[in-house]
């Protein structure tokens, strides 16, 4: 999903699309923290910190209450979100949580999470990005996603997947822009707000120069 911005209706994935972000593109990531300034606006993309849990829970609960972007139905308490989600991420390894801070305020985050529970799926992750309304028209969603994928290139990750609630042509276009391709649609796979929703799944290769496993 001058710069344009739209709320995307997707399942646990990028929610805002910026085409022509006003911030300068990030340089390749060598540290977990980068800051870009544009006039008086300062954007920092960094690894998660303990104090982030409250604003991140508030942000996610808004999507639960008001959208079909996530198929969660009941808002979380901070402690539920901390133990069931936040504590699963690290600053190294496959499963990352990056936070966007704009002028000192947490405005969004990106994650790479387990794609499935069976052991052979460990080299695949599910990618997600969430942004609050203040992060509109800033290119922050794209910056978060690109930073996340740059970091995953150094890890044992082969594929990233994203599920998008349909219809959502803007989110599909964003993922294609970032290298995703469609692999199929789950029809009426979830029910929320008294209706059923289709979900399209997309995948993207994570290029890891150290990988030596045969893919075919």
Q: Give a short account of the largest sheet.
A: 8 strands, mixed
String of helices and strands: EEHHEEEHEHEE
Instruction: Count every helix, treating DSSP H or I runs of 4 or more residues as helices.
Output: 4
Number of strands: 8
Helix-strand layout with pairing:
Elements: E1 33-38, E2 41-47, H1 53-66, H2 78-84, E3 97-102, E4 105-114, E5 124-131, H3 140-152, E6 159-165, H4 169-177, E7 181-192, E8 195-205
Q: Would you write up a description of this structure?
A:
This protein is of the alpha+beta class and 216 residues long. Helix content is 20%, strand content 31%. It has an eight-stranded mixed beta sheet with strand order 1-2-3-4-5-6-8-7, sandwiched between helices. Strand 5, helix 3 and strand 6 form a beta-alpha-beta unit. The longest helix is centred in the N-terminal third of the chain and has 14 residues, at 53-66. The model is unreliable at 1-32 (pLDDT under 50).
Can you summarize this structure?
The protein has 216 residues and is an alpha+beta fold.
Keywords:
216 residues; alpha+beta; eight-stranded mixed β-sheet; 4 helices; 8 strands; disordered N terminus
């Amino acid at each position: 999903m001058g710069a344009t911005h739209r709320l995307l209706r997707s399942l646990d994935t990028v929610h805002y699309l910026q085409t022509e972000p006003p911030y300068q593109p990030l340089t390749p990531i060598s540290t977990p923290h980068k800051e870009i300034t544009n006039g008086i606006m300062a954007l920092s993309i960094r690894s998660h910190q303990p104090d982030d849990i409250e604003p991140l829970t508030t942000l996610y609960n808004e999507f639960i209450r008001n959208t079909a972007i996530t198929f969660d139905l009941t808002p979380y308490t901070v402690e539920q979100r901390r133990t069931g989600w936040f504590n699963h991420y690290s600053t190294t390894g496959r499963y990352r949580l990056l936070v966007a801070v704009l002028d000192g305020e947490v405005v969004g985050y990106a994650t790479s999470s387990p794609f499935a529970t069976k052991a052979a799926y460990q080299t695949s992750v599910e990618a997600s990005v969430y942004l609050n309304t203040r992060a509109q028209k800033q290119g922050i969603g794209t910056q978060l996603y690109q930073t996340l994928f740059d970091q995953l290139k150094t890890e044992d990750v082969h594929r990233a997947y994203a599920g998008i609630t349909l219809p959502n042509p803007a989110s599909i276009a964003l993922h294609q822009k970032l290298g995703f391709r469609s692999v199929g649609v789950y029809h009426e796979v979830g029910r929320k707000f008294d209706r059923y929703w289709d979900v399209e799944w997309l995948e993207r290769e994570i290029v890891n120069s150290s990988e030596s496993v045969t893919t075919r």
